[in-house]
Amino acid sequence: MNIVPTRTFTQKYHVKTVVWLTLFILLVIGTAKMTGVDFIMFFANFGQFTALLQQMAKPDWQYTSLVVQPILETIQMALIGTTVGTLVAIPFSVLAARNIVKNKFLRGIIRFILNLVRTLPDLMLAALFVAIVGIGPVAGVFTLAIFSFGMISKLFYEAIETIDEGPLEALQAAGANKIQMVVFAVIPQVFNYFVSYFLYTFEINVRASTVLGYLGAGGIGVYLQRSLDQFAYGQTAIIILGILMVVLIIDGVSNTLRERLL
Amino acid sequence: MKQLTVSNSTLQFKRYKWLFWVAIVLVIYIWGITGVHFTGIKDSAGEVSRSIAYGIFHPDWKYVYDGSGEDLVSLILQTLAMAFLGTFISAILSVPFAFWAARTGKPRFHVRSTSGKLVLTLIRTFPEIVLAIMFIKAVGPGSFAGVLAVSIHSIGMLGKLFSESIENMDFGPSEALMSSGGNRAQTLVFATLPTVLPEFLSYTLYRFEIAVRSASILGMVGAGGIGTPLLFAIQTRTWSRVGIILLGIIITVTLIDYISGTLRKRLV
Fold this sequence. Notes:
The complex is a heterodimer.
Chain A: H1 9-12, H2 15-34, H3 39-44, H4 46-56, H5 64-96, H6 104-119, H7 122-133, H8 137-161, H9 165-173, H10 178-212, H11 220-229, H12 233-261
Helix pairs in contact in A: 5-8, 5-10, 5-12, 6-8, 7-8, 8-10, 9-10, 10-11, 10-12, 11-12
Chain B: H1 2-15, H2 17-35, H3 45-57, H4 72-101, H5 111-125, H6 128-139, H7 143-167, H8 172-179, H9 184-218, H10 227-235, H11 239-267
Helix pairs in contact in B: 3-11, 4-5, 4-7, 4-9, 5-7, 6-7, 7-9, 8-9, 9-11, 10-11
């Protein structure tokens, strides 16, 4: 005799799903109220938006020659910032790796610091550093250094944690100290990953550095802000096109290099 | 004999290949270092950093909640609301983009998917701040502009991740439905969407984490949220106010990351 499986009340009427869905819809409505979402106004003012897009569709080509230098400066900022951040991140990532530092307490403190640094958004760091060191690319370099430090140290310690323990044990058995172990067993194994992550962070930093100048931290962002303030949207279009090209080129080069490395 | 010399020279070339790379890297770095004009650090740098450190350790606790709607808690809630709604809208908008860009079993170059991928890359590279400024022109300063900026900018990344999960999905269920006579719409609703939904949700949560960070700075250009008072506090050098806002952002981001991480682990 076949027994028809019975479903409980909650299963039959999908109570769980309904409750979650209701909560979700309430959340959407609540947040929409909170942020003052008004799509009627949006579509009523849509003309202004399209007018702006039309202005941007007529790029001011004469502006191109002025944009080249700040874009190069942006790349240089990103390069130096990423390098400084990486150099600082290396010792921290070694100290945060589970298989190198067995002391749970020390590791915990280092990871806590790294987590704190990672929560800080890039533009906020830029605003702080402009206040500290003054307007100019130096503020941008500091910002990108801190920003890439947080990101790269996490990627690095995760790479270190995946290494093969064999060489480490062999060196330890042969009487090597901690530093020798890192130099001869850890670095050769993770070097390619490090370079790949460095390039990846550099890509992200190039993207980030294009807007840092908006708050005065050097590079193309300064020109971006100027053109937007002067309502010179033809110039804005040129700057955005320039940023697009640079980001695409850097991404392409870095992707090719990374594919060859790994 | 000749063979031997040839292989010898290629060997020599291989041995010194690293020199070539070192030279390239050196040239790039010399170019980089000479390019950034060291404008110098302001004399007040030490003093300002001390005041910032002082402000961070002596935060302005009165700012946390004063019931005016312009305090830390309300503005952080507003930031979260911007990120949530923006990500929600963007997740819905991303689905058609994802199907546009997904390459399923076709040769390497395919007009539809390649054009879709290109559009997604363009959206991704368009700076979010500029997008926010453009929306401010349309709807006025405030968090609605921020919501719009987040929802359009996130399409770039979500669309890409979604299309990749469509490319990598298991085609068994959709083939089964098609062979039993299901039409395209039925295959989509009963096979494709249920297969990719958990991954879509997981990516959306991940994007929400990123959106919280970016929503917290969108206010710096006037698009609502905690960014506006933060920039104001930095510019007026009210470091105790900066300290409390920084604390607020750090705590919020950490909490959201933790909650979303736990949820994502349960999803996939």
